[in-house]
Amino acid sequence: MHTTYYKTPLKxxxxxxxxxxxxxxxxxxxxIDQNIELILTTCPGEHGFNTDFGCxxxxxxxxxxxxxxxWEEDFSVHIEQAVKENEKRLTNLKIxxxxxxxxxxxxISQTTTIRKKVDVIILGNIGETxxxxxxxxxxxxxxxxxx
Length: 147
Fold this sequence. Notes:
By secondary structure, the protein is of the alpha+beta class. It has three helices and six strands, in the order βαβααββββ. It is 26% helix and 33% strand. Strands 3-4-5-6 form a four-stranded antiparallel sheet. Strands 1-2 form a two-stranded antiparallel sheet. The relative contact order is 0.15.
């Protein structure tokens, strides 16, 4: 059975204006990648139809880091729980976290700050095929932003 996956964001304007009867498609891997990115950048309670959708890393956004290893462990657990709950197409998840301080320059206000940059690597298998796959995301904390 062939499943169709759609690229996000959906570009409905071209669908209605260009006599286009198809929305842009993507592969299974791209669909999983898009969904994980959405999970990571959604705060639980934000999604109107599923208040459990999202990742609790938002609760750690402005948290002071007293123990880097404990913070990374908690961060990993939140991600693993969220992906397991909201991305059922992946199995055998392994989460790797690398946190470091980076200089962040705001061009609008002409200020420079030090922010936490967290690289998130998610490894797993696609349940249907058993294929190994991996995804990498970069997040800046306080306030949360993606790269």
